[in-house]
Write a structure and sequence with these properties.
Layout (H helix, E strand, L loop, with lengths): L1 H16 L5 H26 L8 H22 L7 E2 L2 H14 L12 H25 L2 H5 L4 H18 L1 H5 L7 H6 L6 H20 L5 H19 L25 H10 L4 H33 L5 H17 L6 E2 L1 H9 L5 H22 L4 H15 L2 H4 L8 H16 L2 H22 L3 E6 L7 E2 L2 H10 L3 E10 L4 H8 L7 E12 L1 H16 L3 E5 L7 H12 L2 H5 L4 E2 L2 H16 L2 H4 L17 H8 L3 E5 L4 E3 L7 E7 L2 E5 L1 E9 L4 E2 L2 H4 L7 E4 L3 E7 H10 L1 H30 L1
Parallel strand pairs: 4-13, 5-6, 6-7, 7-8
Antiparallel strand pairs: 1-2, 3-5, 9-16, 10-15, 11-14, 11-16, 12-13, 12-15
Helix pairs in contact: 2-3, 2-4, 2-11, 2-15, 2-16, 2-17, 3-14, 3-16, 4-13, 5-12, 5-13, 5-14, 7-17, 7-19, 7-20, 10-11, 10-17, 11-17, 13-14, 13-15, 19-20, 21-26, 30-31
């Protein structure tokens, strides 16, 4: 019963993973992918272990295969991209090659109780193990999102730099010279060359390049290797029979152990770890971070490509965790670091692979190769693998970035690509990425500094608030509105843009009101806060006012965060909390009210309740006409916040404001369309057309009104047609004046 229960649980888990949902496609896709992965695994493994010398060529090939087998299997099970194939990639091989090359010249490794080569391989395993751990941490904290923010020119430079390094690293096996030969001796010809390796390498390159065009059924890489092996054996049979000897032959991979992978590195590392000096751990941690970031970037790029082909969406968090588990497993079994391989993944997808089972089948197929076909793998010429990697390197170059050369508009991006590429070749990946990011940040800051933070500037005589006022009040604004200056700001107020803003605002210190519209400002740094305090102090010295708009906005998380920040640094107290408004319109209204009050006489500004003759529509009526109108209107009152009428209600008449003011809203009650003050009218459309109310009107203060119903206006028209016509003319004239003012504001905004 226990065994049966265990089998049922295993089948249930497999069903949850949907391992058998696409069995035929996954089977064919996984097997086909393994055919492409085989030469790549061997090539990357041989390239990575090349600094250790010819004695470790076979072990390098096996390490490449183990990466596909162990990391590929674990990443397929635990990853977040079902169709992705994981294995060693060119960037991973380059980092390991540089790591090994660095430690081959370290004399201290000989004192750690094992051979120098074995010590290096154990440190490689430790590096890959840490890299896997870092990837898991990246996945848990959502680091996949951060990797997406690496600038494209930096990524392009990394790819180009890796391509150059791979190509250069394969020159020695291509020409058949010893690994100790310098590049200068290769260029000058002093290192000599081997015609056999050159011929085999050239044939492999030609076959690989043209196979994709002529023989599409068989993967081009496999065709290239097959032609390279054939050329090697033909030369051996006809010209040099000693090439057919597998033992101590530096031109081929050589014998590869045929055995199941075992976690021997884990056991050996436990006793070796205590012997590693603390100073050496620094040289392990940095490459481990490099590997984790590079592998994560490579993997997520491949995941995006897989999504586009399969019309699915990967889970980046789970994918990074799965990749980390895979790399830790590969390290314990002596494999190379791994990442999502775009080329092999595409082969898998094109041949029907869609679920995790395709990755599992790929790993199992390569395991069978290790167990059964290693006697044949040993005959693969190193120069054939060099040819494969040279083609891979050439195809890795981001040719789109080369188009940036010679174009003035893209010169800065080209500078980043070139700097990262050269730094990759001269130094290493970490320094190259650092240089690229620094240059990108500096160019971005310069771009922001060159941009003006002032989106638009206007004065209060051209653009007014939504508060509808009497013609006398509007006349004051037209004459003195230039005392109100509005600055619409955008983007970031930071150290790079503060000086430009200060230069402009200094010109308007004599204005009574300066309004800063922060609607489009997304961030303010400490330099920006200091600038706001400085402007507030200078304006206050002159007895004027600095107002901030679009800062007091409940519900807007970004503005709430910005206001909280300004409160913490003391800016809101310096400016005055009563000088902070939810929108520029409210700030304009506040400034206009104060300006009108200053320009009007005390009697004019007196807030006592108006009489009928004070209403603009009835200004030029005689006493008798006013008495007649008085019989057709009735007083009504509304408390602050009370709704006068709602949108969609029937229109019953027109309102005239005696005291207070009301606001007009439509749809969203939080968005104000207009505000009407004392002395003006609203709701006039109800007597002009028989339609429902088009907006909602709310009393903003305790308000007193005169109401003329539609019925009363009709009675006035029948009994006193001349008087009714006169009232309609005055209403039309006021509406025309409002329309002219609106048109003037629109033109001002367009300028």
């Amino acid at each position: 019963m226990t065994l049966k229960h265990s089998l049922q649980r295993l089948l249930q888990r497999a069903g949850n993973l949907r391992l058998f949902a696409n069995l035929r496609g996954d089977l064919f896709g996984g097997i086909t992918a393994s055919i492409v992965a085989l030469p790549l695994a061997i090539a990357f493994g041989v390239a990575a272990f090349a600094p250790l010398g010819p004695d470790y060529v076979a072990q390098g090939a096996l390490a490449g295969l183990y990466a596909f087998i162990i990391a590929g299997f674990l990443a397929s099970i635990f990853g977040g991209t079902p169709s992705q194939i994981t294995g060693p990639t060119a960037p991973m091989a380059v980092v390991i090659t540089a790591f090994i090359a660095r430690f081959t010249m370290d004399p201290e490794l000989a004192n750690l109780g094992v051979s120098t080569a074995e010590a290096i391989l154990l440190m490689v395993a430790a590096t890959i193990l840490l890299a896997g751990l870092f990837q898991i941490v990246l996945g848990v904290v959502g680091g996949g999102r951060l990797i997406k923010y690496i600038p494209f020119p930096v990524v392009s430079g990394i790819m180009n730099g890796i391509a150059v390094l791979i190509f250069l690293s394969q020159l020695r096996p291509f020409f058949g010279v010893d690994n100790s030969a310098s590049f200068s001796s290769l260029i000058t010809g002093q290192a000599g060359f081997n015609y056999v390796t050159i011929v085999v390498g050239v044939i492999t390159i030609i076959a690989t390049v043209y196979a994709g065009r002529l023989i599409r059924v068989i993967p081009a890489v496999l065709v290239g290797v097959a032609f390279g092996i054939a050329a090697y054996f033909i030369i051996g049979f006809i010209v040099s029979p000693d090439l057919l000897q597998p033992q101590n032959n530096p031109l081929i991979v050589g014998p590869i152990p045929s055995a199941l992978p075992t976690p021997d590195k884990a056991v050996a590392f436990i006793s070796f770890a205590v012997e590693i000096p603390l100073s050496k751990w620094v040289y392990i941690i940095i490459p481990a971070l490099t590997l984790s970031i590079l592998a994560s970037l490579d993997t997520l790029l491949t995941s995006v490509v897989a999504d586009m082909e399969t019309k699915t969406k990967h889970k980046s968090k789970r994918e990074l965790i799965g990749q980390g588990i895979g790399n830790m497993g590969s390290a314990l079994f002596g494999g190379l670091p791994a990442a999502g391989t775009t080329s092999v993944t595409m082969v898998n997808i094109k041949n029907g692979g869609r679920t995790r089972l395709s990755g599992v089948i790929n790993s199992v197929s390569l395991l069978l190769v290790v167990l059964v076909l290693t006697p044949f793998v040993k005959w693969i010429p190193l120069s054939a693998l060099a040819g494969i990697l040279m083609v891979t390197a050439v195809r890795m170059v981001d040719y789109k970035s080369l188009i940036l050369f010679g174009k003035k508009s893209t010169l800065e991006n080209m500078l980043i690509v070139l700097a990262v590429t050269v730094s990759m070749v001269i130094f290493d990946l970490v320094i190259a990425v650092g240089i690229g990011l620094v240059i990108a940040c500096l160019l971005f800051v310069r771009e922001q500094i060159n941009k003006t933070i002032i989106r638009r500037k206007y004065s209060g005589e051209h653009i007014h608030s939504k508060k509808v006022r009497t013609q006398e009040a509007m006349q004051i604004l037209e004459e003195h509105g230039n005392q109100i200056k509005v600055y619409e700001l955008c983007d970031a107020l930071f150290f790079g843009t503060c000086d430009k803003l200060l230069t402009e605002v200094e010109k308007d210190y004599d204005s009574k009101f300066i309004i800063l519209d922060l609607k489009r400002v997304n961030t303010i740094d400490l330099t920006g806060t200091q600038l706001l305090r400085q402007i507030a102090d200078r304006v206050e010295e002159k007895g004027h006012h600095l107002l901030l708009a679009y800062l007091d906005m409940p519900g807007d998380r970004n503005k709430e965060r910005l206001r909280s920040y300004l409160e913490d640094v003391g800016v809101t107290d310096a400016i005055g909390r009563d000088h902070i408004f939810p929108a520029t319109d409210y700030a304009l209204e506040w400034a206009e009210d104060l300006l009108i009050k200053e320009e009007m006489s005390e009697a004019q500004w007196d807030t006592q309740i108006l009489e009928l003759h004070d209403i603009s529509v009835f200004h030029d009526l005689s006493t008798e006409q006013l008495r007649l109108v008085q019989g057709y209107v009735r007083p009504v009152s509304f408390r602050r916040g009370e709704i006068i009428f709602r949108e969609g209600e029937p229109g019953h008449g027109i309102y005239f404001i005696l005291s207070g003011y009301v606001s007009v809203f439509t749809g969203n009650r939080d968005h104000r369309l207009a505000t009407f003050s004392d002395g003006v009218f609203f709701g006039e459309m109800s007597i002009l057309e028989d339609k429902p109310r088009s907006a909602t009107v709310r009393a903003e203060t305790d308000t007193k009104l005169l109401f003329m119903s539609k019925k009363n206006f009709q009675q006035l028209t029948e009994s006193e047609p001349t008087l009714a016509a006169h009232i309609l003319r005055r209403i039309s004239r006021d509406l025309s004046h409002r329309l002219r003012m609106t048109n003037a504001e629109v033109r001002a905004l367009e300028e």
